[in-house]
């Protein structure tokens, strides 16, 4: 009988995750025991919880600490990503209440569900064992299936949830099979052990078990970050899901997918960077081009932003394909700025659409610029940032990603990226043309912003501009985060 | 004791059957059952490797996969019921409001 050695337990390393799970569970109980239909207070409590968690996470900044026998790590890379997740969850919560009341689905469980999804993302970023990454991914995915189908009386939301569930579970199968084969080829599920095994036995790179395993893992993660050709679910799910949840899904979970992808690909297989690079640039070119070209012909603003989010995953993959520190830091910075600009854009869309998401088309925005000049200006800032125009965060992010690609010798990849960026201007500007230069066919009354949405917009606009004008500090932090 | 290749081949065949089922079947519940089959094929792979390597990690992984599959089943069936209530069908051909 083998004796099992008790691993050293260091709870401090996973303190942010513990805190956030406890807060989410308490909020579930609060929701049950406090009567009344107004659930907005749960949102505010969640935001306090997220702030406490962020403080606890940022407190760990510094040298990396590994715990639980090398299953979890607390390093700057994970902390930077955790802050991105917490920010996107906070912004999504701020824009939820009004929408959920309007659509008659403001059940209080929404907020704990978002928090649990955030715990899953945090585990994905800090996990250094395939098992932990898998558990984090599933905690995230299962919560997202529920959130996508949250509006259960609305057929579109039902469809989004069902589609996301079936395709998500399908892709999980591939990811798991990849993990099983990698485990078989290298004898461990720990990234550290896999890495040293690959270093010690270079011959493993030609072992079919190992190669197929790695490819299947790459397929599983590509699905999660919505990279072409595994993007088919994205537009449908993003369009059908409740708008605040679409905003959340496009920012947080995408970043989480990148965090786990980078962790597995770069850390576990430093020897195979050249091979990854070849795979990743194909993914990057496909993803950017497919996303942008299909976005050109979309009328529904949510669906257009869904395709644009595919394109943005492509830009981030350009930095990933460079497989150097600049590229990785660029992804970190880009994911942070993308969270602000994209959730901000969705916040304005929540204000524009009425119950049942009527008037969600570009044409319905005609005259918006004259009726609500301030909101229209805010939306324009987000769209400019998404298109990558200076002086916004989107410009700095893309500049950094593309220059990383050039440094790695992928000049033409950067050129394709810039061309794509130029094409994307068309559909972002089209929204602005309708807002400012067309007259409305019917007279729409647009509602004003609630305080919570106003705060979200203020934070998002502020961050988009600040990151665009003085990106120095955050870029430095991102660079420190990728010094492995 | 059988050689590990036998187990790997069986699980690869199971995985392939599951994948083909997901791609060809039209009933959401049958698709879900095919996905479960893929997960169980993975479990078989893990256990075979665990035995072969004399390493317990693979068996621990299987417990997690089973737990997660159960949680996924709960959520997935709930989503199907919600869809059925509004559409009175769980045929994926009827999941067509949002166009690809």
Automatic annotation (TrEMBL), chain A:
Transmembrane segments: 12-34, 41-62, 77-96, 131-150, 162-185, 205-223, 255-273, 279-297, 304-325, 331-353, 374-397, 409-429, 449-470
Recorded topology in the membrane: Multi-pass membrane protein
Enzyme Commission no: 7.1.1.-
Domain of life: Bacteria
Keyword list, A-Z: Cell membrane, Membrane, NAD, Quinone, Translocase, Transmembrane, Transmembrane helix, Transport, Ubiquinone
Entry annotated with the keyword Transferase: no
Domain NADH:quinone oxidoreductase/Mrp antiporter transmembrane: 128-421
Subcellular compartments: Cell membrane; Endomembrane system; Membrane
Main enzyme class: translocase
InterPro entries per the UniProt record, alphabetical: NADH-Q_OxRdtase_suN/2, ND/Mrp_TM
Catalytic activity: a quinone + NADH + 5 H(+)(in) = a quinol + NAD(+) + 4 H(+)(out)
HAMAP family: NDH1_NuoN_1
Subunit structure and binding partners: NDH-1 is composed of 14 different subunits. Subunits NuoA, H, J, K, L, M, N constitute the membrane sector of the complex.
Reported function: NDH-1 shuttles electrons from NADH, via FMN and iron-sulfur (Fe-S) centers, to quinones in the respiratory chain. The immediate electron acceptor for the enzyme in this species is believed to be ubiquinone. Couples the redox reaction to proton translocation (for every two electrons transferred, four hydrogen ions are translocated across the cytoplasmic membrane), and thus conserves the redox energy in a proton gradient.
Family the UniProt entry places it in: Belongs to the complex I subunit 2 family.
Name of the protein in its database record: NADH-quinone oxidoreductase subunit N
Species the sequence originates in: Geomonas diazotrophica
UniProt gene name: nuoN
UniProtKB/TrEMBL annotation, chain B:
Keywords from the named record: Cell inner membrane, Cell membrane, Membrane, NAD, Oxidoreductase, Quinone, Translocase, Transmembrane, Transmembrane helix, Transport, Ubiquinone
Keyword Hydrolase listed: no
Regions that span the bilayer: 6-23, 30-49, 61-84
One annotated GO molecular function: quinone binding
Membrane topology term: Multi-pass membrane protein
Compartment annotation: Cell membrane; Membrane
GO cellular component: NADH dehydrogenase complex; plasma membrane
Enzyme class: translocase
Family per record: Belongs to the complex I subunit 4L family.
Name of the protein this chain belongs to: NADH-quinone oxidoreductase subunit K
Organism this protein belongs to: Geomonas paludis
